[in-house]
């Protein structure tokens, strides 16, 4: 369908009751979708409080849950209303919708919630995490642009930056150690570099990005800092630390059910408006639209995201501590011997822990596979599967799975050893039950040869 869709300003407020406070804020019993600076200051930036301050959307008939608006297109009562909508005079801010690739009420409500969660002016929910990442990079860089990125990234993102964007858009990337600020500065190309790209916690090595310092470099060089916060929702709030744009694979912790694919872009209203532009917007023209039914599902899971994250993080810290005592090579930024422990402690939101991901380096892929086999098939500690954020523990050998898009040299440079097991720590069962399963699986590695059987005496007949 080749309809023409306008790009009105994204407004995160709807028509409300007549009561208005002296400072101009509307009061209808619910806080504004994005609270004022005064409100945010009073909350201290806590993502749980921010999420609770987003407007609660009721169902069509007064239900406590919002309705699912499954329509692809929307009707108007008067013909001139449609004309005004296509001119951009009427839009979602006044409950006027045209087509769900543009705006859908259910998806828009989730977008408001995600903006509140990450502390940004606006957000737009997409069909996948990769669609969110690619849409942002193409919009910000344009043809022939340049990116400076961490040398350790999720394999799909690395492939996007290394192979697809250079071929399709002429966008090239320089990969650097983001903790070497001089290397970061030196990699920026005057007039060409548009984006500095990082993951809050690198996938899979759990290198922690120094978001405050990176944001200073980004401002100094006039580029945008884009941070993938998929590993650390609630735990870290990159936008509050200076990031310009925050992206997520919502499929992971935010969903928590391993049953949907979704993404989100959180950032300035001006950026989201440009991405919805009729002629040049990546969101408008590439169409990575989230399904309204998916948005409804995810919206219902956000209220317990903080509880889930706290338990993920708590168990990860307990397991990592115990694994270290057993002499295993464990990588977890919550441990005091992790090189970025102090950094992460300084940027986390209080009370949420240090993340639910940990790594075990078994040295070789064979030893990693042997341990994972017993963890899944013998003791039922977890499941061999990619992805993360599920209530069951998920585990994979990163070098041959989620980082397989990288060459052996690139993996070595990123610190991904052949035997690195990435564990997304779940919260099902009791902690001690699961730990006992882990210990039993560990004991089954390379079992000692059976003792020689006692030879029966030779009987003569």
From TrEMBL:
A UniProt-annotated Pfam family: Cys_Met_Meta_PP
Keyword list, A-Z: Pyridoxal phosphate
GO CC term, one of those recorded: cytoplasm
CDD domains xrefs: CGS_like
Cofactor(s) recorded in Swiss-Prot or TrEMBL: pyridoxal 5'-phosphate
Single GO BP term: transsulfuration
Modified residues (N6-(pyridoxal phosphate)lysine): 252
Region named Disordered: 1-48
Molecular-function annotations in GO: carbon-sulfur lyase activity; pyridoxal phosphate binding
Basic and acidic residues: bias regions: 36-45
UniProt family annotation: Belongs to the trans-sulfuration enzymes family.
Protein name from the UniProt record: Methionine gamma-lyase
Organism: Ensete ventricosum (Abyssinian banana)
